[in-house]
Amino acid sequence: MIMTEITTLTQTPLRPVSKAGLENLAATAKANPNVVKSLKIKTVCEGQFRNLNYVRDLPEHVIDEPPGLLGQDTAPNPSEALLAALGSCLSVGIHANAIMRGITLTKLELELEGDINITGVWGIGDLSEKRLGFTDVRAKVDVDGDASQEALADLVAHANVWSPVANTLRNPVNVDVSIA
């Protein structure tokens, strides 16, 4: 006798987001297209290269450096935090747009990597002319849901175009740093 085992994979949808809430956000944005909100944080150096970042009334968000950059290795470094911000922003955009398009996602994972030359780090190393910051950033999106691969690819592409963090990286931004 030949026995055949059939396994059915049941995938749980991602924790839901209110479609009505998304529609209200969209309507408010369309009604007030020129509204600019200022986001604020406070960064406090705890010592060595460990920094505590305070956002709204949330617990501190720690940024540190790895041992190779003389840190305590207790948290992501600033460049890793930037990649995390990009990954999170893309994830939010993909999830929100999936909901608006009626796509139920069961998996959404992003892997990001960026190429950065750290030989001139903080202006104390090799100061020869070179690009500071990331030269290339790559994001791989592993997404599953009740839509075709073409629809999922379009969803990811759309989120990339409209991501505030991705566009901050792509476009020149005015940065003013001064003593308090």
Secondary structure topology:
Elements: H1 19-31, E1 41-47, E2 50-55, E3 61-63, H2 78-100, E4 105-116, E5 134-145, H3 149-162, H4 164-170
Antiparallel strand pairs: 1-2, 2-3, 4-5
Summarize the structure.
By secondary structure, this protein is of the alpha+beta class.
Descriptive report:
With 180 residues, the chain is α+β, with helices and mostly antiparallel strands. 32% of the residues lie in helices and 22% in strands. It contains four helices and five strands, in the order H-E-E-E-H-E-E-H-H. It has a three-stranded antiparallel β-sheet with strand order 1-2-3, with no helix packed on it. A two-stranded antiparallel sheet has the order 4-5. A hairpin with a 2-residue loop joins strand 1 and strand 2. The longest helix has 23 residues.
State the strand order across the main sheet.
1-2-3
Model regions low in confidence, pLDDT < 50 over at least 5 residues? none
Distance between the termini: 82 Å
Outline the biggest β-sheet. 3 strands, antiparallel
Oligomer: single chain
Shape: globular
Number of helices: 4
* Proportion of residues in helical segments: 25-40%
Strand pairing plus helix content: what structural class?
alpha+beta
Mind telling me the C-alpha Rg? 21 Å
Q: Could you tell me the number of beta strands?
A: 5
Reading the helices and strands in chain order gives HEEEHEEHH
In what range is the share of β-strand residues? 15-25%
Query: Overall mean pLDDT score?
Result: 92
